[in-house]
Design a protein that fits this description.
It contains 24 helices and 17 strands. The protein has 715 residues and is an alpha+beta fold. The chain folds into 3 domains: 441 residues, no CATH class; 126 residues; 77 residues. The longest helix is centred in the C-terminal third of the chain and has 41 residues.
């Protein structure tokens, strides 16, 4: 326990350093625009006793099961979501959540290293090291929180899997952690889990361990069925979204090359990773650990030790193959996101090798010099990649070499630290804090955007007080960040969820292609200036009516410099940063009937987020169409008439014939493949319960046999 607490303490120290340097370090970019508002919106529904599947009024961002990353079925996400309603400070709350997942990652790495035979002190080094990779520190922890959640749960899954497969321990922890990992809805962790299960299966078959192979197959079936349950809705929905492509290409966006990895041991080295920032990433995204040159101190190892590390080495090789491979594999993009799994593998391998090396605290001078030379080489390569960063590269390289020398080279006839492996491991933990200090000082935040959104939940809630529900922001919403006070008038992306109102401008990872093209809207709610004209242009059937909007917030500037004229039935309010168009007589929010063909009379009987029931009172001889203020997501069915080609290419439309007059029509949404998905979830549940009960029964039988043997020998 002592060494575990040391590992966690080191993680917390770095987190504190980061927060002192940049108080918003953990509340950045997609956490500001995506995760926090998403958590708040989900928490609102959960507190109302609902599990949301669909929200018509949130338009392309409202298909929650297809989105996947909402974590609709994930109890940990539920807790996080409800927690957003308990504190007014979004920055403070998000920081606590992120730190909790970093601690979970360190815990998983510590347990995993111990399971592979690492000593507690080297497992502590592994736990800390696993949390400090460049992708984790500069991308996942500040912004892409689902990546952080995934790698934390992956480490715990791996630990639970090895315990069950190798030692016959309870499978229940694996079922819990695998369920949480898969239902977070972030595909990279699921890919890694699939690779892990496959490697365990191959290893078991290779060794002729048929019992172990059977265990892997059962756990793999559970994970595979859960994956179908969580990911099939998005896969079957993708044809109508911008994620429908199946091409494989390399646009060099957020993948790495061997040159990047060559400098991954220098804490301040930057690289040539192309991304949102341009051709050269301005932070050490490729950083793995400063301990990489120290592998010369723990190698070679015995064949037995190397065999025990086949699976971590296999995961490392496959992960690096992804990271170095094409940047686009169909819907899977940005392979640099898989770097945290490589860091985890390196941490585990190093801890095990160091534990098995009896002379790790007193290596030969030649080995130490090799480690120092490799560090110097990596520093030179880092300088060559970006010469302008020479001062910070030199500082980090010199610090790392000095610490290696202090740890392992004699000074005035004696080594300063080395007396035991425990002291060396403790010194490495402390040294890690020292070598990371220049990184914290130089690179204060993520290279992704800070949108300067408010931290106060109540302040963001107040934005909706004077805006009727059914909102859409038009214009350059990103320009709001230049004037943080402008967030009193408009919000951005998922922060609209804090108002409790339907908004068409929320974040989505699955933009509905026709809708996005018609309104020229991106995944975070930015629109071209022409979107305002598109909303009101059609005099007979204005899109603003079809979408059941009651408020249109126009962001001033960037093509929208002139006060818009008030259309009939609307009033324009002039504010400092926006104009707000208010409908004089608000209509019901999106989801209901928007309009029907001439001569077709219908009346709404009932409506929910996933269904609408109407009576068909009159139908012209040629029939007609009913247009709903809903996106035509795959998964809609109707009990009368037929689903027709969507109006404008995206509005749900039902065609009825004269024979349908007098009928009651119900349109119903279920995620495409719903029957298969539910069946998969049930099957996964049965496997998890059945295998766990089988394990318990087996343990009881073994205990009974042991008692009978003791009784017989006593006689």
């Amino acid at each position: 326990m002592f060494w575990y607490l040391c590992s966690i303490a080191a993680v917390l120290v770095v987190c504190a350093m980061r927060i002192v340097r940049e108080p918003r370090f953990f509340f950045w970019d997609d956490t500001q625009l995506g995760a926090f508002g998403q958590w708040y919106g989900l928490g609102s529904r959960l507190l109302a006793g609902e599990i949301p599947l669909l929200s018509p009024g949130h338009w392309q961002g409202g298909n929650y099961l297809a989105e996947g990353q909402w974590g609709i079925w994930n109890p940990v996400t539920w807790i996080v979501a409800i927690g957003t309603h308990l504190i007014d400070g979004a920055t403070v709350y998000t920081t606590l959540v992120k730190i909790a997942f970093l601690v979970a990652l360190a815990t998983g790495a510590f347990l995993l290293a111990r399971e592979y035979g690492a000593s507690p002190w080297w497992a502590a080094v592994a736990g800390f090291t696993a949390t400090m990779g460049g992708q984790t520190i500069f991308m996942d922890a500040p912004s892409w929180v689902t990546g952080l959640q995934n790698v934390a749960l992956f480490a715990l899954c791996w630990w639970a899997l090895k315990r069950h497969v190798s030692r016959g321990a309870s499978p229940f922890p694996f079922f819990v952690f695998a369920y949480l990992l898969v239902t977070f809805g972030y595909v990279f962790g699921v890919i890694e889990l699939a690779v892990l299960l496959l490697l365990f299966l191959v290893a078991s078959r290779w060794e002729g361990a048929w019992v172990s192979a059977r265990r892997v197959l059962v756990l793999g079936a559970f994970s595979g069925l859960l994956t179908v349950f969580v990911y099939l809705p998005g896969l079957l929905t993708s044809p109508v979204t911008t994620r429908s492509g199946s091409q494989i290409l390399n646009d060099q966006f957020l993948n790495m090359d061997l040159g990047d990895l060559a400098t991954s041991s220098i804490t301040t080295a930057t690289s040539s990773v192309h991304g949102y920032w341009g051709d050269l990433v301005p932070v050490p995204l490729q950083y793995v650990t400063w301990l990489l040159p120290l592998f010369v101190l723990v190698l070679p190892a015995t064949a037995r030790v190397l065999r025990s590390l086949v699976i971590p080495a296999g995961i490392l090789v496959v992960t690096l193959a992804f990271v170095l491979g094409p940047s686009v594999l169909g819907p899977i993009r940005y392979p640099a996101r898989m770097m945290p799994y490589a860091v985890l593998c390196v941490a585990i391998i190093f801890a095990v090798l160091a534990s098995r090396r009896r002379d790790v605290h007193r290596p030969s001078r030649a080995r130490v010099q090799w480690a120092m030379g490799l560090t110097a080489l990596a520093g030179w390569l880092a300088w060559a990649a970006q010469p302008s960063s020479w001062a910070w590269v030199l500082l980090a390289t010199a610090l790392q070499i000095a610490i290696i020398a202090a740890l392992f080279l004699p000074w005035r006839g004696r080594v300063l630290v080395a007396a035991s492996p425990q002291r060396v491991a403790a010194s490495i933990l402390i040294g890690s804090l020292v070598v990371l200090a220049p990184q914290v000082a130089r690179y204060a935040s993520s290279p992704l955007g800070n949108f300067n959104v408010p931290s106060s939940v109540s302040a963001m809630q107040a934005v909706g007080d004077d805006i009727a529900e059914g909102v859409m922001a038009v214009g350059d919403v990103y320009s709001l960040q230049a004037h943080p006070e402008s967030y009193r008038e408009s919000l951005i992306a998922n922060l609209w969820y804090l108002t409790g109102e339907d908004a068409a401008s929320v974040y989505t990872v699955l933009p509905f292609t026709a809708f996005a093209e018609d309104l020229c809207i991106d995944l975070r709610g930015y629109t071209c200036p022409d979107a305002l004209d598109v909303l009101f242009r059609d005099r007979e059937h204005p899109l603003v009516d079809d979408m059941a909007l009651n408020s249109v917030v126009v962001i001033k500037g960037n093509g929208l410099e002139t006060r818009p004229d008030a259309p009939r039935g609307w009033t324009v309010e002039d504010r400092e940063f926006t104009w707000v168009l208010h409908r004089d007589v608000p209509v019901e929010t999106a989801g209901d009937v928007a309009r029907a063909s001439e001569g077709l009379l219908v009346e709404t009987i009932d409506r929910t987020d996933t269904s609408v029931t109407v009576s068909i009172d009159s139908v012209p001889p040629e029939g007609g169409d009913i247009v709903f203020s809903r996106l035509a997501w795959p998964g809609y069915t109707t009990n009368a008439g037929s689903i027709a080609d969507p109006e404008r290419g995206y509005l749900l439309t039902v065609h009825v014939d004269a024979a349908d007059e007098g009928e009651t029509l119900t349109i119903q949404f279920r995620p495409p493949g719903w029957a298969v998905e539910v069946a998969s979830a049930i099957a996964a549940g049965l496997i998890g319960i059945g295998w766990s009960l089988s394990w318990v029964a087996g343990r009881r039988r073994a205990a009974q046999r042991g008692s009978m043997w003791e009784a017989s020998t006593a006689r």
